[in-house]
Amino acid sequence: MKRFLRDILLFLLPMVLYALLSAYLLPRMLSQVLGPGTQEQVDRQFTQLERQEPELLVLGNSRMYVGVDPDELTWPAFNFAHDNDSYDQAYFKLKFALERGKQFRSVVLGTDLFQFSVLTDTRDHAYAAHLGRKYLERRGPASLLWMKVSFHLTNMDPNRLLLLWSTEPPMRLKDTGQQVKSGQARESDRVVRDPTRSAHQVAYFEQTLELCRTHDIRVAIVMPPVRRNEMDNYSTEEVAAFDAFIQRYVVPGRVDYLCYRDSPAFSLADYVDITHLSAEGARKFSRMLNEDLKSIWPEADPMGPGPSSPAPDGHS
Question: Is 86 exposed, middle or buried (0-12, 13-18, 19+ CB in 10 A)?
Fold first, then answer.
Protein backbone atom coordinates (compact mmCIF):
# COMPACT_ATOMS: atom_id res chain seq x y z
CA MET A 1 0.00 0.00 0.00
CA LYS A 2 2.81 2.40 0.91
CA ARG A 3 4.54 1.63 -2.35
CA PHE A 4 1.31 2.25 -4.24
CA LEU A 5 0.87 5.65 -2.56
CA ARG A 6 4.49 6.50 -3.25
CA ASP A 7 4.05 5.64 -6.93
CA ILE A 8 0.93 7.80 -7.09
CA LEU A 9 2.78 10.73 -5.50
CA LEU A 10 5.72 10.30 -7.85
CA PHE A 11 3.30 10.22 -10.77
CA LEU A 12 1.52 13.39 -9.62
CA LEU A 13 4.63 15.30 -8.57
CA PRO A 14 5.64 16.52 -12.07
CA MET A 15 2.10 17.75 -12.75
CA VAL A 16 1.92 19.56 -9.41
CA LEU A 17 5.32 21.16 -9.98
CA TYR A 18 4.33 22.23 -13.50
CA ALA A 19 1.04 23.68 -12.19
CA LEU A 20 2.94 25.72 -9.61
CA LEU A 21 5.47 26.78 -12.22
CA SER A 22 2.81 27.91 -14.68
CA ALA A 23 0.74 29.68 -12.02
CA TYR A 24 3.47 31.60 -10.24
CA LEU A 25 6.88 31.45 -11.90
CA LEU A 26 6.05 31.40 -15.63
CA PRO A 27 4.04 34.68 -15.59
CA ARG A 28 6.98 36.43 -13.92
CA MET A 29 9.43 34.99 -16.42
CA LEU A 30 7.21 35.98 -19.34
CA SER A 31 6.89 39.53 -18.02
CA GLN A 32 10.67 39.84 -18.30
CA VAL A 33 10.56 38.71 -21.93
CA LEU A 34 7.28 40.16 -23.21
CA GLY A 35 6.56 42.97 -20.76
CA PRO A 36 3.88 43.21 -18.03
CA GLY A 37 1.11 40.59 -18.09
CA THR A 38 -2.60 41.36 -18.15
CA GLN A 39 -3.09 41.60 -14.38
CA GLU A 40 -0.07 43.87 -13.95
CA GLN A 41 -1.14 46.09 -16.85
CA VAL A 42 -4.63 46.53 -15.44
CA ASP A 43 -3.45 47.12 -11.88
CA ARG A 44 -0.89 49.68 -12.99
CA GLN A 45 -3.44 51.59 -15.06
CA PHE A 46 -5.85 51.86 -12.16
CA THR A 47 -3.05 52.85 -9.77
CA GLN A 48 -1.68 55.50 -12.11
CA LEU A 49 -5.15 56.96 -12.70
CA GLU A 50 -5.68 57.29 -8.95
CA ARG A 51 -2.44 59.30 -8.70
CA GLN A 52 -3.26 61.73 -11.51
CA GLU A 53 -5.81 64.45 -12.21
CA PRO A 54 -6.33 64.29 -15.96
CA GLU A 55 -8.69 66.60 -17.78
CA LEU A 56 -9.08 64.19 -20.69
CA LEU A 57 -9.70 60.44 -20.49
CA VAL A 58 -9.09 58.01 -23.36
CA LEU A 59 -11.31 54.91 -23.51
CA GLY A 60 -11.39 52.11 -26.06
CA ASN A 61 -9.75 48.92 -27.24
CA SER A 62 -6.12 48.10 -27.97
CA ARG A 63 -6.05 50.35 -31.03
CA MET A 64 -6.57 53.29 -28.66
CA TYR A 65 -4.47 51.74 -25.87
CA VAL A 66 -1.46 51.61 -28.18
CA GLY A 67 -2.35 54.39 -30.60
CA VAL A 68 -3.04 57.41 -28.39
CA ASP A 69 -0.03 58.99 -26.69
CA PRO A 70 -1.24 61.41 -23.97
CA ASP A 71 2.15 63.15 -24.07
CA GLU A 72 1.19 64.54 -27.49
CA LEU A 73 -2.10 66.05 -26.29
CA THR A 74 -2.50 69.63 -25.13
CA TRP A 75 -4.54 68.66 -22.08
CA PRO A 76 -3.40 66.59 -19.09
CA ALA A 77 -4.64 63.21 -20.32
CA PHE A 78 -4.71 59.57 -19.26
CA ASN A 79 -5.06 56.56 -21.54
CA PHE A 80 -7.52 54.18 -19.81
CA ALA A 81 -8.10 51.99 -22.87
CA HIS A 82 -7.09 48.33 -22.91
CA ASP A 83 -6.91 45.20 -25.05
CA ASN A 84 -10.35 43.82 -25.99
CA ASP A 85 -12.24 46.61 -24.21
CA SER A 86 -15.63 47.41 -25.67
CA TYR A 87 -18.36 49.71 -24.41
CA ASP A 88 -19.33 47.79 -21.29
CA GLN A 89 -15.73 48.08 -20.07
CA ALA A 90 -15.62 51.74 -21.11
CA TYR A 91 -18.79 52.53 -19.17
CA PHE A 92 -17.67 50.86 -15.94
CA LYS A 93 -14.20 52.38 -16.17
CA LEU A 94 -15.63 55.87 -16.64
CA LYS A 95 -18.05 55.28 -13.78
CA PHE A 96 -15.16 54.10 -11.58
CA ALA A 97 -13.12 57.21 -12.34
CA LEU A 98 -16.01 59.59 -11.67
CA GLU A 99 -16.81 57.85 -8.40
CA ARG A 100 -13.18 58.41 -7.38
CA GLY A 101 -13.70 62.14 -7.78
CA LYS A 102 -11.93 62.56 -11.11
CA GLN A 103 -13.22 65.60 -12.96
CA PHE A 104 -12.82 65.23 -16.69
CA ARG A 105 -13.63 67.95 -19.16
CA SER A 106 -13.37 65.60 -22.11
CA VAL A 107 -13.49 61.93 -23.09
CA VAL A 108 -11.97 60.46 -26.23
CA LEU A 109 -14.03 57.33 -26.89
CA GLY A 110 -12.52 54.94 -29.40
CA THR A 111 -14.64 53.12 -31.92
CA ASP A 112 -14.08 50.44 -34.54
CA LEU A 113 -16.20 48.82 -37.19
CA PHE A 114 -16.04 45.56 -35.21
CA GLN A 115 -16.04 46.88 -31.64
CA PHE A 116 -19.78 46.57 -31.05
CA SER A 117 -19.55 42.84 -31.77
CA VAL A 118 -17.03 42.18 -28.99
CA LEU A 119 -18.50 40.33 -26.00
CA THR A 120 -15.59 39.19 -23.88
CA ASP A 121 -14.77 38.30 -20.30
CA THR A 122 -11.11 37.41 -20.91
CA ARG A 123 -9.92 40.22 -18.63
CA ASP A 124 -12.68 40.10 -16.05
CA HIS A 125 -10.41 38.29 -13.58
CA ALA A 126 -8.11 41.33 -13.74
CA TYR A 127 -10.86 43.97 -13.63
CA ALA A 128 -12.82 42.34 -10.79
CA ALA A 129 -10.96 43.92 -7.88
CA HIS A 130 -11.40 47.37 -9.41
CA LEU A 131 -14.83 47.41 -11.05
CA GLY A 132 -16.80 45.24 -8.62
CA ARG A 133 -19.65 42.76 -8.70
CA LYS A 134 -21.99 44.78 -10.94
CA TYR A 135 -19.34 44.75 -13.64
CA LEU A 136 -18.79 41.00 -13.33
CA GLU A 137 -22.52 40.31 -13.59
CA ARG A 138 -23.24 42.76 -16.42
CA ARG A 139 -24.31 39.87 -18.69
CA GLY A 140 -25.66 37.59 -15.96
CA PRO A 141 -24.38 35.60 -12.96
CA ALA A 142 -20.60 35.17 -12.94
CA SER A 143 -18.13 33.30 -10.77
CA LEU A 144 -14.88 35.11 -10.05
CA LEU A 145 -13.43 31.88 -8.66
CA TRP A 146 -14.10 30.07 -11.93
CA MET A 147 -12.61 32.98 -13.91
CA LYS A 148 -9.39 32.75 -11.92
CA VAL A 149 -9.26 28.96 -12.22
CA SER A 150 -9.86 29.22 -15.96
CA PHE A 151 -7.13 31.85 -16.25
CA HIS A 152 -4.62 29.61 -14.44
CA LEU A 153 -5.62 26.61 -16.57
CA THR A 154 -4.93 28.66 -19.68
CA ASN A 155 -1.53 29.57 -18.26
CA MET A 156 -0.74 25.85 -18.02
CA ASP A 157 -0.70 25.50 -21.81
CA PRO A 158 2.82 24.14 -22.54
CA ASN A 159 2.95 26.24 -25.71
CA ARG A 160 3.34 29.30 -23.50
CA LEU A 161 6.83 28.10 -22.65
CA LEU A 162 7.83 28.85 -26.24
CA LEU A 163 7.16 32.54 -25.57
CA LEU A 164 10.23 32.59 -23.35
CA TRP A 165 12.32 32.48 -26.54
CA SER A 166 10.53 35.43 -28.17
CA THR A 167 12.92 37.77 -29.99
CA GLU A 168 10.45 40.68 -30.07
CA PRO A 169 11.33 43.65 -27.83
CA PRO A 170 9.05 43.68 -24.75
CA MET A 171 6.13 46.06 -24.78
CA ARG A 172 6.14 48.74 -22.10
CA LEU A 173 3.64 50.84 -20.20
CA LYS A 174 3.91 54.58 -19.75
CA ASP A 175 2.74 56.39 -16.63
CA THR A 176 0.10 58.05 -18.83
CA GLY A 177 -1.54 54.64 -19.36
CA GLN A 178 -0.44 54.06 -22.95
CA GLN A 179 1.03 50.75 -24.05
CA VAL A 180 4.00 51.00 -26.41
CA LYS A 181 4.58 48.08 -28.80
CA SER A 182 7.57 47.24 -30.95
CA GLY A 183 7.75 45.26 -34.16
CA GLN A 184 7.23 45.69 -37.87
CA ALA A 185 4.02 45.06 -39.77
CA ARG A 186 4.05 42.92 -42.91
CA GLU A 187 2.16 43.41 -46.13
CA SER A 188 0.72 39.89 -45.71
CA ASP A 189 -0.90 40.59 -42.30
CA ARG A 190 -4.56 39.58 -42.11
CA VAL A 191 -7.30 39.53 -39.47
CA VAL A 192 -10.97 38.47 -39.38
CA ARG A 193 -13.49 41.03 -38.12
CA ASP A 194 -17.25 40.99 -37.48
CA PRO A 195 -19.22 44.24 -38.02
CA THR A 196 -22.34 42.99 -36.19
CA ARG A 197 -23.57 45.46 -33.56
CA SER A 198 -24.78 43.66 -30.44
CA ALA A 199 -27.64 45.21 -28.47
CA HIS A 200 -25.55 44.77 -25.31
CA GLN A 201 -22.70 46.95 -26.55
CA VAL A 202 -24.99 49.51 -28.18
CA ALA A 203 -26.75 49.93 -24.81
CA TYR A 204 -23.45 50.48 -22.98
CA PHE A 205 -22.25 52.85 -25.71
CA GLU A 206 -25.39 54.92 -25.12
CA GLN A 207 -24.98 54.71 -21.34
CA THR A 208 -21.40 55.95 -21.66
CA LEU A 209 -22.54 58.95 -23.69
CA GLU A 210 -25.34 59.62 -21.18
CA LEU A 211 -22.91 59.43 -18.26
CA CYS A 212 -20.75 62.02 -20.00
CA ARG A 213 -23.77 64.23 -20.67
CA THR A 214 -24.90 64.20 -17.03
CA HIS A 215 -21.37 65.15 -15.91
CA ASP A 216 -21.00 67.86 -18.57
CA ILE A 217 -18.16 66.01 -20.31
CA ARG A 218 -17.50 66.55 -24.00
CA VAL A 219 -16.99 63.43 -26.09
CA ALA A 220 -14.98 62.82 -29.22
CA ILE A 221 -15.85 59.45 -30.76
CA VAL A 222 -12.62 58.55 -32.54
CA MET A 223 -11.92 55.89 -35.14
CA PRO A 224 -8.13 55.47 -35.48
CA PRO A 225 -6.37 54.62 -38.75
CA VAL A 226 -7.19 51.18 -40.15
CA ARG A 227 -5.01 49.21 -42.55
CA ARG A 228 -6.47 48.34 -45.95
CA ASN A 229 -5.96 44.61 -45.25
CA GLU A 230 -8.30 44.91 -42.28
CA MET A 231 -10.83 46.97 -44.22
CA ASP A 232 -11.18 44.03 -46.62
CA ASN A 233 -13.48 42.51 -43.97
CA TYR A 234 -16.18 45.08 -44.68
CA SER A 235 -18.35 45.98 -47.62
CA THR A 236 -18.88 49.59 -48.69
CA GLU A 237 -22.47 49.31 -47.45
CA GLU A 238 -21.37 48.09 -44.01
CA VAL A 239 -18.94 50.98 -43.63
CA ALA A 240 -21.57 53.52 -44.67
CA ALA A 241 -24.12 51.98 -42.29
CA PHE A 242 -21.63 52.18 -39.42
CA ASP A 243 -20.85 55.84 -40.05
CA ALA A 244 -24.57 56.63 -40.27
CA PHE A 245 -25.12 54.82 -36.96
CA ILE A 246 -22.42 56.88 -35.19
CA GLN A 247 -23.69 60.12 -36.74
CA ARG A 248 -27.02 59.60 -34.96
CA TYR A 249 -25.28 60.44 -31.68
CA VAL A 250 -23.38 63.51 -32.87
CA VAL A 251 -24.20 66.83 -31.21
CA PRO A 252 -21.53 69.25 -32.48
CA GLY A 253 -19.41 70.61 -29.67
CA ARG A 254 -20.74 68.03 -27.23
CA VAL A 255 -20.41 64.73 -29.08
CA ASP A 256 -18.26 64.73 -32.22
CA TYR A 257 -17.05 62.02 -34.57
CA LEU A 258 -13.45 62.08 -35.78
CA CYS A 259 -12.75 59.34 -38.31
CA TYR A 260 -9.15 58.66 -39.37
CA ARG A 261 -10.01 55.25 -40.81
CA ASP A 262 -8.85 56.01 -44.35
CA SER A 263 -6.25 58.67 -43.56
CA PRO A 264 -3.51 58.68 -46.24
CA ALA A 265 -1.02 59.92 -43.63
CA PHE A 266 -0.26 56.38 -42.44
CA SER A 267 1.75 53.70 -44.20
CA LEU A 268 2.94 50.18 -43.39
CA ALA A 269 5.95 51.66 -41.59
CA ASP A 270 3.63 53.22 -38.99
CA TYR A 271 2.35 49.82 -37.78
CA VAL A 272 3.77 46.96 -35.74
CA ASP A 273 1.11 44.46 -36.90
CA ILE A 274 -2.28 44.36 -38.62
CA THR A 275 -3.89 46.52 -35.92
CA HIS A 276 -1.50 48.56 -33.81
CA LEU A 277 0.54 51.67 -34.48
CA SER A 278 4.22 51.87 -33.65
CA ALA A 279 5.49 54.38 -31.09
CA GLU A 280 6.20 56.88 -33.87
CA GLY A 281 2.90 56.08 -35.58
CA ALA A 282 1.10 56.71 -32.29
CA ARG A 283 2.85 60.06 -31.88
CA LYS A 284 1.86 61.03 -35.43
CA PHE A 285 -1.76 60.01 -34.89
CA SER A 286 -1.93 61.70 -31.48
CA ARG A 287 -0.62 64.98 -32.88
CA MET A 288 -3.28 64.88 -35.61
CA LEU A 289 -5.94 64.06 -33.05
CA ASN A 290 -4.74 66.88 -30.79
CA GLU A 291 -5.07 69.48 -33.53
CA ASP A 292 -8.57 68.33 -34.40
CA LEU A 293 -9.66 68.28 -30.76
CA LYS A 294 -8.48 71.88 -30.45
CA SER A 295 -10.53 72.68 -33.53
CA ILE A 296 -13.79 71.19 -32.24
CA TRP A 297 -13.25 72.37 -28.65
CA PRO A 298 -11.47 75.74 -29.10
CA GLU A 299 -12.75 77.14 -25.79
CA ALA A 300 -11.39 74.09 -23.97
CA ASP A 301 -7.87 74.55 -25.35
CA PRO A 302 -5.71 75.83 -22.46
CA MET A 303 -3.35 77.38 -25.03
CA GLY A 304 -6.17 79.27 -26.72
CA PRO A 305 -7.49 78.95 -30.30
CA GLY A 306 -4.87 78.07 -32.85
CA PRO A 307 -4.48 76.54 -36.31
CA SER A 308 -5.84 73.06 -36.71
CA SER A 309 -5.17 70.29 -39.14
CA PRO A 310 -7.57 69.63 -42.01
CA ALA A 311 -10.69 67.82 -40.89
CA PRO A 312 -10.28 64.05 -41.14
CA ASP A 313 -12.73 61.94 -43.10
CA GLY A 314 -15.99 61.70 -41.21
CA HIS A 315 -15.24 64.77 -39.07
CA SER A 316 -18.42 66.25 -37.64
Answer: buried
Q: What is the pTM of this model?
A: 0.86
* Strand-pair partners of 140: 138
In the chain, what are the domains?
2-300 (3.40.50.1110)
Alpha helices (H) in the chain, listed in sequence order: 2-20, 26-34, 38-51, 62-67, 87-99, 124-136, 144-155, 199-214, 228-231, 236-247, 279-296
Distance of alpha carbon 205 from alpha carbon 190, whole angstroms: 28
Q: Which residues lie across from 182 on neighbouring strands?
A: none
HSE-CB for 69 with a 13 A CA cutoff: 18
Query: Degrees (nearest 5) of the Cα angle 19, 23, 27?
Result: 135
**CA 263, CA 224: separation in Å to the nearest integer?**
9
Looking at the DSSP assignment, which residues form a beta bridge with residue 82? none
Express each pLDDT in 4-40 by its tens digit. 667 676 666 666 565 656 666 666 666 666 788 889 9
C-alpha–C-alpha distance, residues 30 and 90, integer Å: 28
**Spatial CA neighbour of 231 closest among 282, 274, 284:** 274
